[in-house]
Amino acid sequence: MNMVQAEELVYEYEKRDDEGNVIGMNRAIDEVDIDVEPGQFVAILGHNGSGKSTLAKHINAILVPTGGVMWVNGRDTRKPEELMSVRQSAGMVFQNPDNQIIGTVVEEDVGFGPENLGVPTDEIWTRVEESLRAVGMIEYRTHSPNKLSGGQKQRVAIAGVIAMTPQCIVLDEPTAMLDPNGRKEVLETVQELRKRKHVTVILITHYMEEVIDADKVYVMDSGHVVMQGTPREIFSQVDELKKYHLDVPQVTMLAEELRKRGLGLPRGILRREELVKYTVDLWKSRKNRDVKM
Amino acid sequence: MIRDITIGQYYPANSLIHRLDPRVKIVCTLIFLVSLFVQNSFLGYMIATVFLAAVIKISKVPLKFIVKGLKAIVILLMFTVVMNLFLTKGGEELVHIGFIRIYENGLRTCVFMAIRLIYLIIGSSLMTLTTTPNMLTDGIEKLLHPLNKIHCPVHEVAMMMSIALRFIPILLEETDKIMKAQIARGADMESGNLIQRTKAMVPILVPLFVSAFRRANDLAMAMEARCYHGGDGRTKMKPLIYRGTDYMAYTVTILYMIAVVVIGHFVAFKLWIF
């Protein structure tokens, strides 16, 4: 059974004019098919208004599809009686770190989810401690969240989700409001968790650098999934990506430009080390050729 | 001005009073406040003073910090004292200069009113100084729990209070940001009379409210995403459980109350007569 599976998912909402009269329907998501296997790291890319956040909210049953089905851990999100177990198995981290921390003390915020699930008091404490340790925030447990940096707040938010022992974590642009250091901090935490706890990770983002390690990438544009595949497959199609207002990582861009100028580089180079390796190889083979001649 | 108000501020320390159950502190504060108003003798207020001094000593909150909270009521205090002093009639006439007449009863009520007001503020700020806002809302929630039976949403109200407390610093920061942004656009907030300055607040309040609503929307979503579904079936990470010291505190406060009533009414009354 897949962790998350969307079958011809449609989400429509009413478009209204200034007086509040319905003037038509708007399709935020149009017949989208997605499947995520347990333990995978899946990235969903798209520029603003592409429907990627709307899709993310379906995984957590904050939004319910108006057409098609969304299966989360084998449960239909449309059924009200499944709501709590869907939300428990797919935790969600939002963009704005300030607007998702409920507690006035770090540990109380992490305990908020388990409290809602009705977990016994003793177990809440062990879960809180374990989750804070997992994101490296244990020394801040009695601090006020207001005094933390953006990256630290997001790590607390992640801990709050982990404390509910989800099988899957959905991160909806978790780094959009952070500085480069905070971004790195949050992404490293997520990778660490993936390795240690084997949770499925679904990352919604518009930063290309963040998806290089993904197992699978979906590209969304105006409610449709327009591209899907491994990061290498996606990033080798630089021109197509540009059509959807997305940029490839800088290294990929450089390699692509060099390739266009006639340098014998392969498509879809993702990392700086790769580019260095290929160019050095190229240079060596040329030198050998020169020597032979 | 806002900084002077110590009610609602928390003074972190590790004392017996800090560790008491918030319910105990709320109930005992109420008893103390009532004790100030049910009696009318110097002896009774002596006991109240001793009691209050002992609690302050145990709480480890510096007296300076508590007295700072009184600044906010200085005007109210002066007003009450002056009014009572000159307008209460009865008893022996003590001073008579022109139209100013001060009577014995006036002096008594004015002194008692001053003591009552000061102790009232000290007593209640001592409660908030030694209890975190969260514990306080927890305590109120637990104390008002019986109201659930008449369909009063006690848990929801307590949740709203603690969220409001969490967002006060965030919204203050935001106000500051908006203010700077509007000043940068040429808004003038310092000059003009009171009405003009109040009007100048509009360009700050409108964006602040818009952003507060947006935040509220986001927060509600985040709470739902973490399985929040009201107070039913919810467990507590930090449940309130009475311990030995809490029962002790109740006993001491009740004994104090009895002492005040008995001494204040009977003993003092007799002394007054003889």
Architecture (CATH level 2) name of the largest domain in chain A: 3-Layer(aba) Sandwich
Q: Whole-number average pLDDT of chain B?
A: 84
Order of helices and strands of chain A: EEEHEEHEHHHEHEEEHHHH
- Shape descriptor of chain A reads globular
Strand content of chain B: under 5%
End-to-end C-alpha gap of chain A? 60 Å
Which structural class matches the secondary elements of chain B? mainly alpha
Q: Enumerate the spans of chain A where pLDDT stays under 50 for 5 or more consecutive residues.
A: none
Q: Sketch the topology of chain B as an H/E string, one letter per element.
A: HHHHHEEHHHHHH
Strand order of the largest sheet of chain B: 1-2
Greatest chain-chain interface? A-B, 39 and 28 residues
Percentage of residues in strands of chain A: 15-25%
* Helix content estimate of chain B: 55-70%
Please count the beta strands of chain A (DSSP E, at least 2 residues each): 10
> Any idea how many domains of chain A?
2
- The number of distinct structural domains of chain B comes to 2
User: What oligomeric state do the depicted chains represent?
Assistant: heterodimer
Largest sheet of chain A: 6 strands, mixed
In round numbers, the mean pLDDT of chain A is: 88
Reported for the largest beta sheet of chain B, the result is: 2 strands, antiparallel
How many strands of chain B? 2
Structural notes for this entry:
The complex is a heterodimer of chains A (293) and B (274). Chain A has helices spanning 52-59, 83-89, 106-117, 121-134, 150-162, 180-197, 231-235, 238-243, 250-260, 272-292; strands at residues 4-16, 22-36, 41-45, 67-72, 75-76, 90-93, 168-172, 200-205, 216-221, 224-229. Chain A folds into two domains: 4-231, P-loop containing nucleotide triphosphate hydrolases (Rossmann fold, 3-Layer(aba) Sandwich); 249-293, no CATH class. Chain A has 293 residues and is of the alpha/beta class. Chain A is globular. In chain A, the strands form two sheets. A six-stranded mixed β-sheet of chain A has the order 6-7-8-3-9-10, sandwiched between helices. A four-stranded antiparallel β-sheet of chain A has the order 2-1-4-5, with helices on one face. Chain A is built from ten helices and ten strands. Chain B is mainly α and 274 residues long. Chain B contains eleven helices and two strands. The mean pLDDT of chain B is 84. At the A-B interface, helix 2, helix 3 and helix 4 of A face helix 8 and helix 10 of B.
